[in-house]
Design goal:
Bound molecules: S-adenosyl-L-homocysteine
Strand content: 5-15%
Largest sheet: 10 strands, mixed
Structural class: alpha/beta
Number of helices: 15
CATH superfamily of the largest domain: Aldolase class I
Number of domains: 2
Helix content: 25-40%
Shape: globular
Strand order of the largest sheet: 1-2-3-4-7-8-9-10-11-12
């Protein structure tokens, strides 16, 4: 259930209510949110401008202000007439979110909690100078972005889905995460991973539109090969994405190499089992040169047995995939723990001995990224937007614990 007072009030049409009613409400109602230019393509912007009777070069100016110049407001588009800026401002905005908190420091991983215009929160994590995480030798700034508020997939180890699913992010909200972090840090992002909150392939149209805008030269200008979409395994959407024209990378949150293990921790496996998933991955491979990456969280006594390592090796070899092993990052209130370092090493060694490219990452950066969802959970619980999914307990992050 949506408990956000802002959300409920934003539905009101200001003009429809007598002033006295406002006095009864604790928070003044906000006008309905306007769409953001950051989520529009040049074709859409040009069509709108043509409707307004504006020449094509004006549309180009708006596109340039929105993306290349990253204008913080329509008011700031100074070479447009005041009248046109006013008309545009009645229909659009250029920003829809604010940075609520930033944790971490310049040289380490920084986690941004972003407040959306309906009062909800999402997280974005900036990981600096992370060498070759997803196949790139020189990535200097990797940003881990969210695609949804909450998540419907209910993976048993993950904080993002603990309070259920709220809504999809729009393409503009996905793009704006990058714009906000670049403005705050003064740095250009050169690598993006869709490993924040949410299941990107369950928000397919907004995510792929955002990727087009992020990739375009007129847009944000990030190379397609520097963007990785991570999925819990939505087989039909993986096939669909294989036919998407941009050469983005694919990561699969596998976390189990047999159906019995995967079924226990990832309900999505009951819908698309490993055979179906691997069928979709074979299709992906038939269409693309890039190697797939398997993410595999090691959880003690759940999926860290060496039998799983052998099965994983076989599956990875079949697709020539790379494996990223991630020691589980404990979430307070959940029963799972990370295995000892000896067990982690033994699991990795099975993969290496089988000739599979495998990395075991113990550094904090990715741990915090992988724990996306926990900050938002705490914030929305404290503000009373959602009820704590873990009664009497705060969700805390034990990165590297
Ligand atoms: N839904 C997509 C995108 C989220 S990615 C997907 O599942 O791929 C977030 C990654 O962090 C996933 O690989 C997820 O399995 C992992 N993750 C979630 N909770 C974690 C935790 N507590 N410790 C380590 N990794 C975690």
């Amino acid at each position: 259930m949506d408990r956000s007072p802002c959300r409920r009030l934003s539905c009101f049409d200001l003009r429809a209510f007598p002033v006295s009613l406002f006095a009864l409400t604790a928070t003044p109602p906000k006008p309905a949110a306007l769409p953001s230019l950051l989520g529009l393509t040049p074709v859409e912007i040009t069509a709108f401008m043509a409707e307004m009777g504006e020449p094509a070069f004006r549309a180009k100016q708006v596109i340039d202000w929105t993306f290349a110049k990253r204008a913080v407001s329509i008011e700031a588009m100074s070479n447009l007439s005041k009248g046109l800026r006013q008309t545009l401002a009645e229909r659009f905005v250029t920003r829809t979110m604010t940075i609520s908190t930033v944790t971490g420091s310049k040289d380490t991983t920084r986690k941004f909690l972003l407040k959306l215009n309906d009062g909800r929160f999402v997280e974005t994590v900036l990981i600096p100078a992370n060498p070759a995480l997803y196949g790139e030798a020189s990535d200097r700034h990797t940003l881990c972005v969210s695609s949804q508020v909450g998540c419907a997939y209910d993976c048993k180890f993950c904080a993002s889905g603990l309070a259920g699913f709220t809504r999809n992010l729009t393409a503009a909200e996905i793009v704006e995460q990058i714009v906000q972090v670049e403005a705050y840090s003064g740095e250009r992002m050169d690598n993006l991973v869709f490993m924040g909150m949410g299941e990107p392939l369950a928000n397919y149209s907004h995510v792929t539109k955002a990727i087009e805008i992020l990739n375009a030269e007129w847009g944000i200008g990030i190379g397609a090969r520097h963007m990785t979409v991570s999925t819990s395994g939505l087989a039909p959407q993986i096939k669909k994405l294989a036919d998407f024209p941009l050469q983005i990378r694919l990561a699969i949150s596998l976390h189990g190499a047999s159906d019995d293990v995967r079924n226990k921790i990832m309900p999505v496996n009951q819908k698309y089992n490993l055979d179906e998933l691997f069928d979709a991955l074979a299709y992906w491979r038939s269409k693309r040169k890039q190697h797939i990456t398997f993410e595999y969280i090691l959880i003690q006594d759940v999926n860290d047995g060496l039998d799983q390592a052998h099965r994983l090796a076989k599956r990875a070899k079949g697709l020539d995939a790379k494996v990223n092993l991630i020691p589980y990052n404990t979430v307070e209130g959940l029963p799972w723990v990370r295995p000892s370092e000896e067990r982690q090493d033994a699991f990795r060694d099975v993969l290496l001995n089988a000739g599979v490219k495998a990395t075991l990452r113990r550094e904090k950066g990715h741990d915090i990224a992988a724990a996306c969802g926990q900050l938002r959970l705490r914030q929305e619980t404290e503000l009373g937007i959602i009820e704590s999914p873990i009664p009497e307990k705060r969700i805390t992050i034990h990165a590297g614990a």
